Amino acid sequence: MAIWKILADSEYLGLNYADERDIRLTWAYEDGELQEWQPFYVNYITFVTDDTDERHERISNFPRISGFITCDETAKSILKQSLYSHVDFLPLLSETIKDRRLYIFYAKTVLDCLDEEQSEYTRLKSGYIVGIQRHVFKSDCIGGAPIFKLPGGPAHAPYVNDRFKQLIEDNGLTGLEFRKVWEG
Q: What are phi and psi of 130, to 5 degrees?
């Protein structure tokens, strides 16, 4: 079993906040269930650094936005059945994107499965993990969770198993980058 870290692929057109002053990242979880969510407005990024590079004009199923992985309705419909208890799809709003619905793809399963004695990582005094240089997981702790995040770790870069990666690839979904971090 391999564990992969997923990130939004920068080879595709990304998103930005429609008005950064209007962002209200209001969400509240209680016992692993979403109690409150305040959607915010997004738009596709309209500038590219190299206007001859057509890669940046392609739209993916998982467009990137600072701090989050998002997904479109196609990805949501494919993943929802397999991941229903492990993720939430938090709706986003847009005045300019009329042809697709977008969601924050939020991993809500938290597993305390990092073997802290064998891993190499940096933790702030607050307990927040800012970087893991070498991952070692307790394999019996992961079980069959297809996607998870670590306690005290960033919510925007969850970990996934081989089954999740295969589901993305089998369905031709685009916009995610998989980095293998552990083989157990």
A: -100, -15
* pLDDT tens string 18-66: 877 656 566 667 776 778 888 888 998 865 555 555 555 688 999 988 8
What pTM, to 2 d.p., does this model score?
0.86
CB burial class (10 A; 0-12, 13-18, 19+) of residue 63?
Answer: buried
Q: Is the dihedral of CA 88, 93, 94, 99 positive or negative?
A: positive
- The radius of gyration of the chain's CA atoms, rounded to the nearest angstrom, is 17
3-state secondary structure of 135: coil
- Phi, psi for residue 113 in degrees, rounded to 5: -120, 10
Q: What percent of the chain has pLDDT over 70?
A: 86
Q: Which two tokens stand for residue 51?
A: 């206007």
CA distance linking residue 175 with residue 59, whole number of Å = 8
Whole-number Å distance between alpha carbons of 55 and 162? 27
The label of the residue with tokens 């079980």 reads 143
Each domain of the chain, given as residue ranges in start order, spans 2-179
